[in-house]
Amino acid sequence: MIQLAIDLAFVLEKAILIGGIISVSLLVAMYSTWAERKVAGFMQDRLGPNRAGPFGLFQPLADGLKLFMKEEIIPNASNKFLFILGPGLAMMTAMMTSAVIPWGKQIEIFGRTVDLQIADINIGILYIFAVLSMGVYGIMIGGWASNNKFSLLAALRGASQMISYELAMGLSIIALLMLTGSLSLKTIVELQSASGGWWNIAYQPLGFLIFIVCAFAECNRTPFDLPEAENELNFGYHQEYSSMKLGFYLFAEYINMFMSSVLMATLYFGGYDIPFVNDASLIESMGMNLVAVLQGLSLFLKAAFFIFVFMWVRWTIPRFRYDQLMHLGWKVMIPLALFNMLITAIVVLIRENGWPF
C-alpha cells in the first residue's frame, strides 16, 4: 500500500507538471501573436493592436474565439483522415519537446522533493531531434492531404528545408556534446551553473550562431518562411485549412518558436541558472521553493529575449529566394558546423592530453 501511494503521488506530480507546462506553452504562444504585432507596429511606427482591452491585451482571446467560431471546411477532394491528422500531428510534436527541458531545479511539496522536469532521460538531446524530425510530417501530411498544388509545393519546400538545416543543427550540437560529455539537458545545465563554470556560449559562439540560424529555418520563420510565402504560394501548406485546424498550425509555429528559445537558453545560456548568483547560498537564505520560482523566471526571461529576436528578424530581413536558402544550408552552414566540430575536437584533445608536441 505504501509503494502504491508513492507511485500514485509520482503520477499525480507528473500529471500536474505536464498540465502546467502545456498551459504555459499555450499562453506564451497566444500572447506571442500579440507581441509579434506590437513589435511590428513599433518597427513600422504604428500602434499595433489597441482595441480589444487595455493595450490590445484581449486581442489574442478575440482571435482564438474567431477561429473557434469560424465555419469548418474540408475540401471534397481531400483525404479527410490525413487532412484532420496533419494539424494535430504538428501541434503534438510542438508540445512534446518540452518533456525533457528542465524548467527549474526542485521544489518541496508536502515533504516530497519534486524535480521541475517531466523526464530526465540520459538521451534528452536525441529525443528532441527525434521529435523535431517528426514535426515535418505534420506539414507534409497537411500539404498533401489538401489536394491543392500550392499546398503540396509549400509542404515540399518545408520538408526539404527542415532536412537541410537539421544536419547543420545536429553537427553544432555534436560540438557542444564534446565539451559537456552528456546528452542529458539537466546535466548540461548543471555543468553551466556549477561554481566557477561558464555558460556554453563562451565556449561555442560559432556553434550557437549555427544553431540559432537553423532554429529559424526549423520554425519556418523569416527569412526562412518559404513554406508560407504568400506572394508565391497563396497561403502555403495550410491554404485549405480553416477554423481551429488552421489555428493548430499557427499555434504550432509559435510553440515551436517558444520551445526553440527555451532550448537555446538551456544549451548555451545556462538554462534556469540565475546569472551572477550562487544558487546554493540563495537556497539557504530564501528556501528551495522561492529559488525554484526565480530559476523558472530566469529561464523565461532568457527565452523571451530569443522570442523577441525571432520577431525582430522577421520585421527586419527580407525572405530568401529558395536557391539562396538551399545554398546557405548546404554550402555555408554545414561546412561551418564541420569546421566548428573539428576545432572543438582539437581543443578537447589538447585539454585532456596536453599539447602533442
Automatic annotation (TrEMBL):
EC class name: translocase
GO MF: oxidoreductase activity
Compartments in which it is found: Cell membrane; Membrane
E.C. number: 7.1.1.-
Transmembrane segment boundaries: 15-34, 81-104, 124-146, 167-185, 197-217, 248-270, 290-312, 332-350
Pfam families in the cross-refs: NADHdh
Top-rank lineage group of the source organism: Bacteria
PROSITE patterns documented for this protein: COMPLEX1_ND1_1, COMPLEX1_ND1_2
Keyword NAD assigned: yes
Catalytic reactions of this protein: a quinone + NADH + 5 H(+)(in) = a quinol + NAD(+) + 4 H(+)(out)
Keywords from the named record: Cell membrane, Membrane, NAD, Oxidoreductase, Quinone, Translocase, Transmembrane, Transmembrane helix, Ubiquinone
Keyword Cell membrane: yes
InterPro entries: NADH_UbQ_OxRdtase_su1/FPO (IPR001694), NADH_UbQ_OxRdtase_su1_CS (IPR018086)
Chief place of localization: membrane
Membrane topology per record: Multi-pass membrane protein
Family stated for the protein in its record: Belongs to the complex I subunit 1 family.
Purpose: NDH-1 shuttles electrons from NADH, via FMN and iron-sulfur (Fe-S) centers, to quinones in the respiratory chain. The immediate electron acceptor for the enzyme in this species is believed to be ubiquinone. Couples the redox reaction to proton translocation (for every two electrons transferred, four hydrogen ions are translocated across the cytoplasmic membrane), and thus conserves the redox energy in a proton gradient. This subunit may bind ubiquinone.
Subunit structure, as described in the record: NDH-1 is composed of 14 different subunits. Subunits NuoA, H, J, K, L, M, N constitute the membrane sector of the complex.
Protein name: NADH-quinone oxidoreductase subunit H
Native species: Flavihumibacter fluminis
